[in-house]
Amino acid sequence: MAVIGRDARLGIKEEMIEKLPSLACALGLLTSPLAADGAQRGQILFERHCATCHGMDLSGQGPMWGVLMIKPTDLVGLTEREGDFPLDPVITRTDGQDPFVRHGSPMPVYGPFFERLVQKVGLPDGREMQTGITLLDIVAYLQAHQR
Question: What is the average pLDDT across 135-144?
Answer without folding.
Answer: 94
